[in-house]
Amino acid sequence: MKAYLVLDLSVDDFAGFKTYIAEIPGFIARHSGRYIVRGVEPTTIEGDWAPERLVIIEFPEREKARAFLDDPDIQDLFELRHATTTSKLLLADGCT
After folding, report:
1. d(CA 59, CA 23)
2. What is the chain's pLDDT, residue by residue, as a tens digit (96 residues)?
């Protein structure tokens, strides 16, 4: 069953965030992930959720998404994202 990482973020330091933008796609590909939505400005239709930027990454299975999140080689990039953005991240399983 496919799994999706959904990232809601506001960039606080774009100059510092550029390294993350440049390097993260290789790690996503390494774990068989692919972008479904990449840093777009979404339009809120209902409710009070108002992300500034939205990223959705699809993985072929939850285990691949977890391996991506737990990859020791990517932890410095995650720390960089935490330092340069305000973000929320969730993992959701797909329907099939």
Report:
1. 18
2. 999 999 999 999 999 999 999 999 999 999 999 999 999 999 999 999 999 999 999 999 999 999 999 999 999 999 999 999 999 999 999 997
